[in-house]
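re the bet — no i am not wrong, look at it urself. input seq straight from the record:
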Amino acid sequence: MSSCRFRETSSPQRAGDLQLHVPVPHLLILVPSMSDPTPLSSVLSELIAKKGIARVQGNAQLIGIWKSVAGERISSRTKVLGLKRGMLEVGVDNSALMNELASFQKTALLYKLQKEHPEQKISDLRFKLRSDLNSKTN
Protein backbone atom coordinates (compact mmCIF):
# COMPACT_ATOMS: atom_id res chain seq x y z
CA MET A 1 0.00 0.00 0.00
CA SER A 2 1.35 3.45 -0.86
CA SER A 3 2.06 6.03 1.73
CA CYS A 4 0.66 9.56 1.86
CA ARG A 5 2.16 12.54 3.65
CA PHE A 6 0.60 15.75 4.89
CA ARG A 7 2.53 18.93 5.42
CA GLU A 8 1.62 22.49 6.29
CA THR A 9 2.54 25.13 3.77
CA SER A 10 3.26 28.81 3.89
CA SER A 11 3.10 29.22 0.13
CA PRO A 12 1.34 32.20 -1.46
CA GLN A 13 -1.78 30.05 -2.08
CA ARG A 14 -3.10 30.22 1.47
CA ALA A 15 -1.09 30.00 4.60
CA GLY A 16 -2.20 27.12 6.77
CA ASP A 17 -3.59 24.96 3.94
CA LEU A 18 -2.67 21.32 4.06
CA GLN A 19 -1.09 19.67 1.08
CA LEU A 20 -1.64 16.00 0.47
CA HIS A 21 1.32 14.39 -1.27
CA VAL A 22 0.46 11.14 -2.95
CA PRO A 23 3.15 9.12 -4.68
CA VAL A 24 1.53 9.78 -8.08
CA PRO A 25 3.38 12.27 -10.26
CA HIS A 26 1.79 15.75 -10.49
CA LEU A 27 -1.12 15.10 -8.13
CA LEU A 28 -1.60 17.64 -5.38
CA ILE A 29 -4.83 18.03 -3.42
CA LEU A 30 -5.35 21.12 -1.27
CA VAL A 31 -7.47 20.68 1.82
CA PRO A 32 -8.60 23.97 3.39
CA SER A 33 -7.66 24.33 7.01
CA MET A 34 -10.31 24.78 9.64
CA SER A 35 -8.62 27.92 10.96
CA ASP A 36 -10.34 30.17 8.38
CA PRO A 37 -13.89 30.75 9.70
CA THR A 38 -16.52 32.04 7.27
CA PRO A 39 -18.02 35.38 8.34
CA LEU A 40 -21.62 35.12 9.52
CA SER A 41 -22.67 37.82 7.04
CA SER A 42 -21.50 35.64 4.14
CA VAL A 43 -23.37 32.62 5.45
CA LEU A 44 -26.57 34.63 5.96
CA SER A 45 -26.32 36.22 2.50
CA GLU A 46 -25.96 32.79 0.92
CA LEU A 47 -28.90 31.43 2.92
CA ILE A 48 -31.14 34.36 1.94
CA ALA A 49 -30.19 33.93 -1.72
CA LYS A 50 -30.81 30.17 -1.67
CA LYS A 51 -34.18 30.47 0.05
CA GLY A 52 -35.34 33.30 -2.23
CA ILE A 53 -36.23 35.60 0.68
CA ALA A 54 -34.72 38.67 -0.99
CA ARG A 55 -36.58 37.89 -4.22
CA VAL A 56 -39.94 37.83 -2.40
CA GLN A 57 -39.24 41.19 -0.76
CA GLY A 58 -37.99 42.56 -4.07
CA ASN A 59 -41.14 41.44 -5.88
CA ALA A 60 -43.33 43.05 -3.22
CA GLN A 61 -41.42 46.30 -3.72
CA LEU A 62 -41.81 46.05 -7.51
CA ILE A 63 -45.57 45.50 -7.15
CA GLY A 64 -45.86 48.70 -5.12
CA ILE A 65 -43.75 50.62 -7.62
CA TRP A 66 -45.83 49.33 -10.55
CA LYS A 67 -49.10 50.32 -8.80
CA SER A 68 -47.83 53.83 -8.13
CA VAL A 69 -46.62 54.32 -11.71
CA ALA A 70 -49.39 52.55 -13.66
CA GLY A 71 -52.34 53.73 -11.57
CA GLU A 72 -55.30 51.79 -10.23
CA ARG A 73 -57.05 51.20 -13.58
CA ILE A 74 -54.02 49.45 -15.12
CA SER A 75 -52.53 47.85 -12.02
CA SER A 76 -55.84 46.17 -11.12
CA ARG A 77 -55.74 44.30 -14.45
CA THR A 78 -52.02 43.50 -14.47
CA LYS A 79 -49.51 41.69 -12.32
CA VAL A 80 -45.76 42.18 -11.94
CA LEU A 81 -44.08 38.91 -12.93
CA GLY A 82 -40.52 39.93 -12.15
CA LEU A 83 -37.46 41.96 -13.02
CA LYS A 84 -34.62 40.22 -14.82
CA ARG A 85 -31.59 41.97 -16.31
CA GLY A 86 -33.39 45.31 -16.34
CA MET A 87 -36.51 43.92 -18.06
CA LEU A 88 -39.70 44.38 -16.02
CA GLU A 89 -42.22 41.70 -17.02
CA VAL A 90 -45.87 42.50 -16.45
CA GLY A 91 -48.73 40.05 -16.92
CA VAL A 92 -51.88 41.49 -18.52
CA ASP A 93 -55.37 40.00 -18.21
CA ASN A 94 -56.54 40.56 -21.81
CA SER A 95 -55.15 41.16 -25.27
CA ALA A 96 -56.86 44.54 -25.80
CA LEU A 97 -55.17 46.01 -22.72
CA MET A 98 -51.88 44.35 -23.62
CA ASN A 99 -52.01 45.94 -27.08
CA GLU A 100 -52.84 49.35 -25.57
CA LEU A 101 -49.97 49.13 -23.07
CA ALA A 102 -47.40 47.87 -25.57
CA SER A 103 -48.37 50.24 -28.38
CA PHE A 104 -49.43 53.46 -26.68
CA GLN A 105 -48.37 53.57 -23.02
CA LYS A 106 -45.10 51.64 -22.81
CA THR A 107 -42.83 54.64 -23.44
CA ALA A 108 -44.58 56.83 -20.86
CA LEU A 109 -44.69 54.05 -18.25
CA LEU A 110 -41.02 53.21 -18.78
CA TYR A 111 -40.01 56.88 -18.52
CA LYS A 112 -41.98 57.28 -15.28
CA LEU A 113 -40.47 54.09 -13.82
CA GLN A 114 -36.93 55.22 -14.68
CA LYS A 115 -37.47 58.77 -13.40
CA GLU A 116 -39.24 57.91 -10.13
CA HIS A 117 -37.32 54.72 -9.32
CA PRO A 118 -33.80 54.88 -10.83
CA GLU A 119 -32.50 52.48 -8.16
CA GLN A 120 -34.46 49.65 -9.84
CA LYS A 121 -32.43 50.05 -13.08
CA ILE A 122 -35.41 49.18 -15.28
CA SER A 123 -34.34 49.44 -18.92
CA ASP A 124 -37.37 47.93 -20.66
CA LEU A 125 -40.94 46.69 -20.17
CA ARG A 126 -42.39 43.45 -21.49
CA PHE A 127 -46.08 42.66 -21.37
CA LYS A 128 -47.32 39.06 -21.36
CA LEU A 129 -50.86 37.84 -21.79
CA ARG A 130 -51.93 35.99 -18.65
CA SER A 131 -55.46 34.62 -18.73
CA ASP A 132 -55.16 33.52 -15.08
CA LEU A 133 -55.42 37.21 -14.08
CA ASN A 134 -59.04 37.59 -15.33
CA SER A 135 -60.61 36.82 -11.95
CA LYS A 136 -57.83 38.25 -9.77
CA THR A 137 -56.78 41.74 -8.85
CA ASN A 138 -53.19 42.68 -8.10
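see?? The domain at 52-133 is CATH 3.30.300.180 (GMP Synthetase; Chain A, domain 3). told u. also The chain has a mean pLDDT of 78. so pay up
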